[in-house]
Every structure is written in structure tokens, then in C-alpha cells.
Design goal:
The structure is a homodimer.
Chain A: H1 12-25, H2 38-45, H3 49-61, E1 65-68, E2 72-75, H4 81-102, H5 107-119
Antiparallel strand pairs in A: 1-2
Chain A binds a DNA duplex (30 and 30 nucleotides) through helix 3.
Amino acid sequence: MFTIDLTSRKPIYEQLYNNVVRLISAGVLKPDDKLPPVRSLATELSVNPNTVSKAYKLLEADGYICSAVGKGSFVSPDISVQNAEKQLALEQVSARIKDAVSLGATKEELLKILDGHFNG
Amino acid sequence: MFTIDLTSRKPIYEQLYNNVVRLISAGVLKPDDKLPPVRSLATELSVNPNTVSKAYKLLEADGYICSAVGKGSFVSPDISVQNAEKQLALEQVSARIKDAVSLGATKEELLKILDGHFNG
DNA sequence: ACAATTGTACTAATTGAGATAATACAATTA
DNA sequence: TAATTGTATTATCTCAATTAGTACAATTGT
């Protein structure tokens, strides 16, 4: 269900965050679905519970999930798959921008492209 | 000529790398142009020479520049391949923006992401 | 009522990448 | 020859990420 790359430069808690957002956007995780307990997921991924907790905390701060002591963590009831998909698409944009910048793309070039999608 | 942000999460050597690639791509640095010596640039940027050296090493490994002891570092005579890669990357950005817009992304949201790659 | 589960909070220790510091060497230039 | 240049090496420092350990409070299930 959840996969992380320990060799990646991206922090584990960030990978987990993206994992959950992706699963929601794909419809695998639906509103009110229960997420694995912090400890269980930590054990499953061979990762520290604090790391999972950090990801969950961020997900709750961004409205993707709701957590409560004793109950667990659940996908937000009001979260729409559309919103999650949009967030995912925005992540893709960010990643491709990063690539382009690495290859010498300037802010002006990127702005021009961006404008093209709102004027044209 | 070169600017870095010491507060950025992005490593200095990576910022320098992108700086050079961008200047080459923009035509400011042309083939066979001389780059600042490692020590000079390090002093100018208040940065360790090793950090500049690391950036130069990567740039040479990727074919952007040619370095030689005693002579200095110069923009590679042929950089056409890199320019082609940039164009491809820009096309990817455009495609992903299109996806995001169709999912409800606003221009403001995209601008914020774009800024993030040039400020943060 | 009780035990297990759960999210959360906290401090301390560890790890690794990035950066600095200092020095040295070899090739080139003037 | 003396200065400049890229490169290499080793050691040290810094900081975010992660681990480790413990504890607490609310909920669940029996």
C-alpha cells in the first residue's frame, strides 16, 4: 500500500505524505477510510514511528486526513478526489519545472508558457 | 554574474550549477567563454573553493564546460544537445500545466509554485 | 473496570549530506 | 621563475532527518 525509497534525497515523511495524497487522488483511499496506525505503518516500513507521525501531522494540517487519539487517522470526510487530483497535478508541474530549471530554463521562459495556458 | 541564496534549501553547488547552465542557455555565456577561476568565484560569493569546484566538476561531467589545470574552465564548444534537452523539458512543463489547469488549478497557484523554484 | 490501542509530545542520540578549513600537487601562463 | 589554475585529500563543523526511548491522554473492546 505504501512504498518509500530510503535512498532517495526526499525525506521519508515527505514521501509518505505524497503517498497518501496519491492514493486519495487515485480513489484507492476514500473519505472516512482508516489509515494504518502510526506504529503499524512504522513497523511495516521499517521506519521510526516519529517519522510516520510527522507525515500524518502534515496531512492533517493540509486537510487530507483527520486524526484523533484512541480512534486513529481517517481520510477527511469532505476531501474530494478532484482536489486531491489537482494537488497531484500541481506536484507534477513542480517536478517538471525543477527539471527544466536544471537544464537552464529561465523564469521568463516559464512565465511565458504559463501565460499561454490562460491567455490562449 | 553569479548569484546564490545561502538561506535556500538547495545546495550551493547545485545553485551554481543551475546558474551556469542558465547563463549558457540564455546566450550570456557563449562557447569557449572563460568562467571565473574557482578561487575567485569562491571569494566573490563568500563560499568555500571546494563548493565551487564541486559545481564545476558536475558541469564538466555533464558536458557544459571544459576544465584544465593551469588554463581554467571554459564553456564547451558544443552545447546543442543540452539546449535540445531544455526545450524538451519545457514541453513537459507545458503539458503538466495543461493537466493541472483542466483539474481546476488557478494561475495564482501555479505562479506560487513557479516562484518557489526561484526564491526558495 | 480493565487492558490494549491510538495519536501526540518530549528529550536525547545518531546519521549523512553539505559546507568549511587547510594543505598539497601538477599543469599552464606570463 | 613566480603566479595562476584545476584537482585532490583529510579533517572538522553544521544542520536537517531520523532514530530511540519514554510518557501521557483519549478511545476501543472485552
